[in-house]
Amino acid sequence: MRIPLIAALAALLLATIMAAPVGAKTFGTLYAEGAVYRTFGTPARVDPGTGTDPIYTFANSTNTQQLSVARFAPGVGSHGGRWAVYHATWVNPADSGILVTDYDTLAALADQGRLTIVRDGAADFRCPILPNG
Question: How many Cβ atoms sit within 10 Å of the Cβ of residue 82?
């Protein structure tokens, strides 16, 4: 009689845990292909230097609307948000107010020598990006 009671209590506890409301996620935002996407952190481990989707932060931007820029939005080319982190730095402080919202613009500015880009493999991480809506 004791075993069925323990099993019933264990089942009740499991059902209670499964039915408990999940806390609301805190979303951040980033740019990809000129649009704003939502994102949230996950506890997934990503070994340093193993990120596959490029994401660019801006070290010295003065534009208050500047967010990180992802190379790929969800879909073709994306590897599910396993981010390879790069830091972009404006060469001329006069350019630091320019708003960059897509990879093509970022790459063109780097090709022009207006941005330097440095890989930071130790900062690689995983998080999904979702349409902003």
Answer: 16
With contact defined as beta carbons under 8 Å apart, do 55 and 29 qualify? Answer: no
pTM reported for the whole predicted model: 0.77
Alpha-helical (H) ranges within the chain are: 2-19, 103-111
Q: Where are the beta strands (DSSP E) in 1-133?
A: 28-32, 35-39, 53-58, 69-70, 82-90, 115-119, 125-126, 129-131
Q: pLDDT tens for residues 82-95? A: 889 999 999 999 99
Query: What residue spans define the domains of the chain?
Result: 23-131
Q: 85: Cβ–Cβ under 8 A, 6 or more apart, which residues?
A: 51, 55, 57, 119, 120, 121, 123, 124, 125
